[in-house]
Amino acid sequence: MAAATAAAAAVSLIVCYLLVHKSIPNLPWVRTARSSRASGRRARRKGLLEAIGNTPLIRINSLSDATGCEILGKAEFLNPGGSVKDRAAVKIIEEALESGDLVRGGMVTEGSAGSTAISLATVAPAYGCKCHVVIPDDAAIEKSQIIEALGATVERVRPVSITHRDHFVNIARRRALEANKLAAAQRESNEEETNDFTHARSEMPDDKLAAMQGESNKMENNDPANFNAEMPLSGKCDANSDSKGGFFADQFENMANYRAHYEWTGPEIWEQTKGSLHAFVAAAGTGGTIAGVSRYLKEKNRSIKCFLMDPPGSGLFNKVTRGVMYTKEEAEGKRLKNPFDTITEGIGINRITKNFMMAELDGAYRGSDREAVEMSRFLLRNDGLFVGSSSAMNCVGAVRVARDLGPGHTIVTILCDSGMRHLSKFFNDQYLADHGLTPTATGLEFLDK
Length: 449
Hints:
By secondary structure, this protein is of the alpha/beta class. It is 43% helix and 11% strand. Helix 9 links the parallel strand 7 and strand 8. Helix 4 runs parallel beside helix 5 and helix 8 crosses helix 9. The chain is globular.
């Protein structure tokens, strides 16, 4: 009787599996065992690093249903460091270690408004490196708190123009140079001490030298600490500690950023959609993501349209559409202390970076702070998606592209990070009220204006 019951249960389980499996939509971006395999380049990464990338491509139901298109978001907020910047951080550090510009125990420095800094602070210890971040003091406070909690050192500075020597990026570059000078000075000092010791040893009597060697061997054999060849790294930057030098990550100009997305993110999107996509749209900060993904997708299929989504105060929209880097905010004297005055963080810029120069774009769209705020609340209410300001702006761009292309198209965008690191500004009711950005929309009517 028991055997018959077990057999019946087994048959029921098999039938249920087949029914459920058959009911799953045959959509190209549904994750499968085959599509989740790592590339040959990623196969060498282990531990935390292995968890970076291969993020799911999810259907944003509310926007898809509203437009008649399939709008898909690459859920980069599911990376260990919480954002798309994990990929660039890994690639930048790996290439620096391979070239010898960075050594184990060395310090990675970066000037960042938040996400790249968090990613570098997350992955640097996995490579045995330290991290020092320079961040503008008007960035959401929780970002610097996260970086410090990860063990990196944080230097908050006032926002100034990139041409100023004390712009946070320029300070980060100097910190790397200072670390290299300190390392060089320590090496020189160690060499002098070694030379002095060698000279003294050569003049020491043989019986005294033998006695000292015996004591040294005894200490090495009895001290358990000597069994650990590498002491754990605290991750803190200390000018008085043994310095292994510094390396400026330079996310804006370092082409490892672009390569991370050309070799990694772009191929994932292509594989997850099985090449069945019509358009890609994203905002740009450093330009690495939009450049790497757009170039890869264009090489696979020239008919795929790639678009930039630009926030207020950024000059990239005019650069793409008119060939001139220009923004009306500067002409009207509205620029205050930031390179661009917008509630969105990490996107928009008024210069062309080496990374952005690699982008292959068919056009550009503009978005507003209000549209980003309203979109974030719309996604939270209708899809349960709690995304940050740049992700919300990307979704505004996806709807614009969908409306221009018409129903029946597949559009991919990037969900850069979650709303967890935007609580003090983008998701702060009082902050929004002070800036006249309190959300009021019930649907997507805010995009009709």
